[in-house]
Amino acid sequence: MPADLRAANVAPMTNSRNPERAFRLNSRPLMVGGVLMGLGGVLGLAGIVVSGACLASAARDWANRQEVPPAELARHHWARAKAATAAGASTWRNGTRKHATPLA
Questions:
Q1: Can you give the C-alpha Rg of the chain in angstroms?
Q2: What angle do CA 53, 57, 63 make, to 5 degrees?
Q3: Mind listing the pLDDT tens digit for each residue in 18-57?
Q4: How far apart are the first and last CA of the chain?
Q5: Looking at residue 11, what DSSP letter applies?
Q6: Which residues contact 63 (CB under 8 A, 6 or more apart)?
Q7: What whole-number distance in Å separates Cα of residue 75 and Cα of residue 96?
Q8: Structure pTM?
Q9: What confidence tens digit (pLDDT) does each residue in 58-101 have?
Q10: Which of 22, 24, 41 is nearest to 33 (CA)?
Q11: Contact call for residues 63 and 70 (beta carbons, < 8 A)
């Protein structure tokens, strides 16, 4: 290919974008929105803390009004569960041979 044909087909690159059609972003409302979201997060966290404190206070008040303290009630039920487990295990080990049907 002759050199003059190659030179005729090559054109310099131009920026054909129209600057008025380019994507523009106004950063002030974006920053204001970010600040408002941050404030909303802080207010939400404060609401969680206040609600949690209220629930903890109500639970503490409920526990104090019980006839049997919750810790003692839990110990009582734990002892009952351990006794039932031991009885079940003992019956399983010893009772299955007594009640088994003889093989024919």
A1: 40
A2: 145
A3: 666 677 888 999 999 999 999 999 999 999 999 999 999 9
A4: 104
A5: -
A6: 69, 70
A7: 31
A8: 0.50
A9: 999 998 999 998 899 999 999 999 999 999 998 888 876 555 56
A10: 41
A11: yes
H/E/C letters for each residue in 43-92?
Answer: HHHHHHHHHHHHHHHHHHHHHHCCCCCHHHHHHHHHHHHHHHHHHHHHHH
Return d(Cα 37, Cα 26) in angstroms, integer.
Answer: 18
Q: What tokens appear for 92 in the block?
A: 């399983």
Contact 63, 69 (CB under 8 A): yes
- Alpha-carbon distance of 35 to 46, in angstroms, equals 17
Q: How far is CA 7 from CA 1, 3, 13, 15, in A?
A: 11, 6, 14, 20
Asked whether 81 and 75 are in contact (CB, 8 A), the reply is: no
What is the Cα–Cα distance from 64 to 69, expressed in whole angstroms? 7
